[in-house]
Design brief:
Order of helices and strands: HHHHH
Largest sheet: none
Radius of gyration: 27 Å
Shape: elongated
Structural class: mainly alpha
Strand content: under 5%
Helix content: over 70%
């Protein structure tokens, strides 16, 4: 059997606590906006390359707001930028956590599947002696589907 990287018992209570913590985060961030794939593709993005530009334009607009039309909401622009910047550390932390959970799930699944294949090969090699012919046949049918 290959090296076992994950050997943990995650109790039902611990699972429930994690799910409650996630629910708490969702409640605290109740303003989150879902976007369709089309909306995501069509939306301009504020990133590292244009963040300084956006900050500078906000500063210039704040100091020289007389050239802006009355309908332009400078405070809303400020709020949006502040929210974007406040969400960045959360996004980074949650992305790292999601990657760790994903990697751990992949490792645990791989270990379980590798062990199952090993058991199957042992059963295949010794099945007639151990009376496992029906088991091997059922597994073979599942693989062929």
């Amino acid at each position: 059997m290959p090296a076992n990287r994950v050997s943990v018992d995650l109790s039902a209570a611990e699972q429930q606590e994690v799910m409650m913590a996630i629910a708490t985060i969702r409640r605290k961030l109740s303003f989150l906006v879902p976007m369709s794939p089309e909306e995501r593709r069509a939306t301009v993005r504020l990133g590292d390359r244009n963040r300084a530009f956006t900050r500078k334009v906000l500063e210039i607009a704040t100091q020289n707001s007389d050239f802006l039309p009355r309908s332009f909401d400078l405070e809303e622009m400020r709020h949006d930028l502040e929210l974007f910047e406040a969400l960045q550390p959360m996004l980074l932390a949650l992305t790292q956590l999601r990657e760790l959970i994903d990697d751990t799930a992949i490792a645990a699944g791989s270990e379980a599947y590798s062990a199952a294949l090993e058991v199957y090969h042992y059963a295949e090699a010794n099945g007639t002696v151990a009376g496992l012919s029906d088991f091997i046949e059922a597994i073979d049918q599942q693989f062929s589907q």
